[in-house]
Prior knowledge:
Blueprint: H1 11-15, H2 23-39, H3 52-64, H4 69-77, H5 80-83, H6 88-95, H7 97-110, H8 117-133, H9 135-150, H10 157-177, H11 181-195, H12 197-231, E1 237-243, H13 246-256, E2 266-272, H14 275-288, E3 297-298, E4 311-316, E5 322-329, H15 330-338, H16 349-357, H17 360-365, H18 386-397, H19 402-414, E6 417-421, E7 427-431, H20 436-443, H21 445-449, E8 451-456, E9 459-461, E10 473-477, H22 494-505
Parallel strand pairs: 2-5
Antiparallel strand pairs: 1-2, 3-4, 4-5, 6-7, 8-9, 8-10
Amino acid sequence: xxxxxxxxxxxxxxxxxxxxxxxxxxxxxxxxxxxxxxxxxxxxxxxxxxxxxxxxxxxxxxxxxxxxxxxxxxxxxxxxxxxxxxxxxxxxxxxxxxxxxxxxxxxxxxxxxxxxxxxxxxxxxxxxxxxxxxxxxxxxxxxxxxxxxxxxxxxxxxxxxxxxxxxxxxxxxxxxxxxxxxxxxxxxxxxxxxxxxxxxxxxxxxxxxxxxxxxxxxxxxxxxxxxxxxxxxxxxxxxxxxxxxxxxxxxxxxxxxxxxxxxxxxxxxxxxxxxxxxxxxxxxxxxxxxxxxxxxxxxxxxxxxxxxxxxxxxxxxxxxxxxxxxxxxxxxxxxxxxxxxxxxxxxxxxxxxxxxxxxxxxxxxxxxxxxxxxxxxxxxxxxxxxxxxxxxxxxxxxxxxxxxxxxxxxxxxxxxxxxxxxxxxxxxxxxxxxxxxxxxxxxxxxxxxxxxxxxxxxxxxxxxxxxxxxxxxxxxxxxxxxxxxxxxxxxxxxxxxxxxxxxxxxxxx
Length: 509
């Protein structure tokens, strides 16, 4: 017999989170709320809570990350087809084809379980093929998985490990690649707490002690900074403190092996009203406090491929402290936290440049997307980001061995990434330790097949040189140059490996 826990749910808690909501949108969400509540009546979770609390919390997460009312409604309804007697036809009749499409997509993804490497591989292929058709399905699935992780303590240890592994290897990296750091951090930290509870506890304690020490410097510096900015006439800004995620800190500590080398455990954020103010604030800071060499990163001028923009600098405070400062506009902050789910209107040429890289966000996620007639004949894959479409294509045509497939997937899409540039300033997103050969094949297969040399930051470099963030890479080609077997030991991406193997089998190419 279930012990029912009374947990209040109120549809207004969801509606209040959605910006610029219309009366029609309110009615849609209320209708979905009532429909789902009735459909799940009498169902309970392992925690003893009514099952409806899960779909309610999923929808609430979607509203918190600024998804539109139809996606939020799909979140409320995402389990009715699979777990109740409601049919597809009923959903179509009551809510239309668009919401049915999203629910069916989430239902299909929900059936793909992590069951060990060999069985997991085929599920992953199906998962990414489905995701490549419409990224909104993945966003709903991420919200669904986040709430499941928040209630994971009620499941068996075996299920905790299985679900946490899947989150850490697949879902959290996907959230990061979509720019949704707010979900990525929560998923990573929860999964880490179940997979390595002792390391998690140690990391939390170290982070707690370091945070306590750093906050003294931050609070003192914050007061000094506000005075300095006010003196220079900059008054329209806000500041806040950021503490690194638990798992993110753990992984960085593993890489650095020395906590004193990690300068961004805590950071001060300065949120301004304009891009011009961002650079003005940076200039004032550097005119007063000495920056650490090599720590200035301008992601406003050169955004990350997922749309992230901010200026990062690390400075000596003059009293023995070192502080990282992140400077961005409010719009950039929304994008940094919510990625694809952010649908604020950007102003200024720089911001428009960023949106041109991720224009599919507006097509997919703002509430007007379902009302645009021109989208009716557009294939869903055309509105998904290129890397998701590539991932789906890889899974469709890739029939390699299970172990090889999983490793390539992790390397190409979920490993630590480096962002390097063409001489024209285009950003190329590659796995860490990629070589100029990987870079060449990422641009075009023909360029890769005829690479004869490379320049990194204007200097000739060997083809096995590991690329670093911010490198400018120029590829030198010759028609007589062809791939050799030695290249296979110099590359990281499956795209380069596949192209090289094809070329080796067909010397005339």
